[in-house]
């Protein structure tokens, strides 16, 4: 870090809010609840009891990390936006938001809702204050409270400080840690600031999709493909190393890489040169391959976000047909593990073999996931782990993720899934069980002859005998 690139100073809230601050588009919506706002007000009032003659007379609210935008006219808030927005909201209610205090910020439904709710809570509280309590509080907030303002001229450095600052406090979402890590890794590869901003903006705009993508899907695929149990809570700060990998040496320096890394690095640089028609890269991402740090990681995340979104939205062909069986259950909590396992299997299959057999792969994935849910009266994640790994009572169950990882052809995987021996399910009125039996009969009997012609299926007679052992 260059000495001129970082500026650290303690400033009052009045001084902070006079700065040309803005919440960049890549930041998350405003999500503070009324309880957070009222607690901040209470803390500020309580701090006014300190002896003015002591060093404790000024109340430190926290740290605000800002990045001086390339245009040089504004400061993007990298960390501390929830507090800054709340301070503006409190001062607006008090009628003290003046002297050039303004904040450019995103406009979205979630932000508007929380602004409205918190404004109402602040007004309700302060309407009950008597005498000069409001003016005293405004003075205390503006001149008796302070923040540590850290300004960086480089976005990657700002995120590095954000990373280390939050590591000492409230635990960040693992995807925030990954974002900060890979943003820093772009410096060595010479990625310019505008490209960094573009990647971070896209990441943050799709944060609601990025978190489950890594936490519930890519993380589990990585674990189960290695015959490891996944954690019930999904990806955490102790597990993010699986999404860190090869540092790029800079174009032309590929020989500096270890031999096993060289092919991946060379392919990445070549894909950047071949990219046309506005495409970012033609690199052939694979979940099982080592992650390339920096810009490639953000492209990796966008690639799999797009694939998963096709399945979850299922509003275009072939996904409308492929996901038709699972759609009736996506909004029912008790089938959450079933639907997640379905999408995890399908995503991994598509990643390795493409979309040529997407409809049939989706059928097999649904049957496999549905059997797990319907064979259990209650389902915990420990059971999902054992089912995916073929452990304990599921020892006869196919290790689907290993099969996908090791197979040369998608048809071999589908054939293997079709031949899994399953114990029969009890007959009852459960709609999903009836649906399962109907689908199994329809798919397996209807397609058995055509699959046999491909060389990957048993004859229909064998299939019927196998069906009786379920």
Proportion of strand residues: 5-15%
Kindly, what is the distance between the CA atoms of the first and last residues, rounded to a whole number of angstroms?
Answer: 63 Å
- Helical content, roughly? 40-55%
Query: What is the total tally of β strands?
Result: 5
Structural class: alpha/beta
Domain module tally: 3
Low-confidence stretches: 446-470
Compressed to H and E, one letter per element, the order equals EHEHEEHHHEHHHHHHHHHHHHHH
Q: For the largest beta sheet, what order do the strands appear in spatially?
A: 1-5-3-4-2
Radius of gyration: 27 Å
- The overall average pLDDT, rounded, is 81
Overview of this protein structure:
This protein is an alpha/beta fold and about 475 residues long. It has three domains: about 5-170, no CATH class; about 195-310, no CATH class; about 315-445, no CATH class. The protein is about 55% helix and about 5% strand. It contains 19 helices and five strands. The protein has helices spanning about 15, 35-45, 80-95, 110-125, 135-145, 155-165, 175-185, 195-205, 205-225, 260-275, 295-315, 320, 335-355, 360-375, 380-390, 400-405, 410-420, 430-455, 460-470; strands spanning about 5-10, 20, 60-70, 75-80, 145-150. The chain has a five-stranded mixed β-sheet with strand order 1-5-3-4-2, sandwiched between helices. Helix 14 packs parallel to helix 17 (about 410-420). The chain is globular. About 35% of the residues are buried. Residues about 445-470 have low confidence and may be disordered. InterPro entries: DUF7834 (IPR057156), GmrSD_N (IPR004919).
């Amino acid at each position: 870090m260059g000495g001129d690139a970082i500026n650290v100073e303690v400033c009052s809230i009045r001084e902070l809010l006079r700065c040309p601050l803005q919440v960049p588009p890549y930041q998350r919506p405003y999500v503070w609840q009324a309880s957070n706002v009222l607690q901040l007000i209470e803390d500020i009032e309580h701090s006014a009891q300190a002896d003015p003659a002591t060093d404790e007379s000024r109340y430190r609210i926290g740290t605000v990390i800002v990045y001086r935008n390339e245009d040089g006219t504004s400061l993007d808030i990298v960390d501390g936006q929830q507090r800054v927005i709340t301070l503006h909201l409190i001062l607006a209610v008090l009628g003290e938001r003046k002297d050039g205090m303004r904040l450019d910020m995103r406009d979205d439904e979630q932000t508007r809702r929380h602004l409205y709710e918190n404004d109402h809570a602040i007004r309700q509280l302060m309407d009950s204050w008597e005498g000069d309590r409001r003016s005293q509080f405004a003075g205390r907030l503006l001149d008796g409270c302070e923040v540590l303002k850290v300004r960086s001229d480089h976005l990657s450095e700002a995120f590095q400080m954000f990373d280390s600052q939050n590591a000492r406090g409230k635990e960040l979402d693992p995807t925030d840690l990954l974002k900060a890590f890979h943003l820093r890794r772009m410096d060595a590869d010479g990625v310019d600031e505008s490209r960094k901003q573009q990647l971070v903006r896209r990441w943050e705009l799709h944060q609601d999709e990025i978190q489950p993508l890594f936490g519930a899907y890519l993380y589990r695929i990585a674990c189960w493909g290695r015959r490891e149990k996944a954690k019930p809570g999904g990806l955490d700060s102790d597990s993010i190393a699986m999404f860190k990998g090869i540092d790029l040496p800079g174009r032309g320096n590929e020989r500096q890489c270890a031999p096993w890394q060289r092919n991946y690095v060379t392919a990445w640089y070549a894909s950047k040169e071949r990219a046309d028609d506005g495409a970012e890269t033609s690199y052939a991402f694979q979940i099982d391959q080592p992650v390339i740090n920096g810009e490639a990681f953000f492209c990796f995340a966008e690639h799999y976000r797009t694939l998963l979104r096709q399945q979850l939205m299922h509003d275009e062909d072939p996904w409308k047909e492929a996901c038709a069986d699972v759609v009736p259950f996506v909004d029912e909590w008790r089938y959450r593990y079933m639907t997640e396992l379905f999408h995890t299997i399908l995503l991994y299959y598509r990643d390795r073999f493409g979309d040529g057999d997407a409809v049939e792969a989706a059928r097999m994935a649904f049957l496999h996931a549905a059997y797990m849910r319907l064979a259990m009266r209650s389902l915990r994640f420990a059971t999902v782990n054992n089912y995916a790994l073929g452990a304990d009572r599921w020892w006869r169950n196919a290790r689907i993720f290993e099969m996908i990882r090791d197979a040369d052809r998608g048809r071999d995987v589908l054939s293997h899934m079709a031949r899994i021996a399953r114990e029969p399910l009890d007959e009852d009125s459960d709609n999903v069980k009836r649906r399962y039996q109907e689908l199994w009969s329809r798919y397996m009997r209807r397609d058995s002859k055509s699959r046999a012609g491909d060389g990957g299926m048993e004859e229909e007679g064998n299939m019927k005998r196998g069906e009786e052992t379920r």
